[in-house]
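#struct-help
A.M.: can someone run this one for me? Single chain, 129 residues.
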Amino acid sequence: MPRIAGVNIPENKRIVISLTYIYGIGNALSKRVLEALKIDESKKASDLTAKEVNDLKEIIEKNHKIEGDLRRQIMINVKRLKDIGAWRGMRHSRGLPVRGQRTKTNNRTVRGNTRKTMGSGRKPAASPG
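D.P.: on it. Structure tokens below:
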């Protein structure tokens, strides 16, 4: 299993899909990296040569913020919003939608207000005894 940026990428999938298992790399960035290295997108991850894997590691780790660094940066950004008392920071801290979604009817599960649906019928009558 090729290991890039501390993540084992699946061997049995195409390399363009396998790279998206790395946090911070989506479909578009995966295609751009493979195009820069002139690696065929339809190639399976298990068919990569050692040189190709090393080139992938090098270009991804040098030029792109991924995995731990990216998570840390996002966490710092959210903390900054909370510290300055911004509206978005308040929404983050309360666990509510940040980007203006409606909250009247949706996102009950996010708020912890899950309502159970009615059962399949009435409860059976209590037996005397």
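A.M.: thanks! The chain has a mean pLDDT of 86.
D.P.: also worth noting: Residues 101 and 107 are 9 Å apart (CA to CA).
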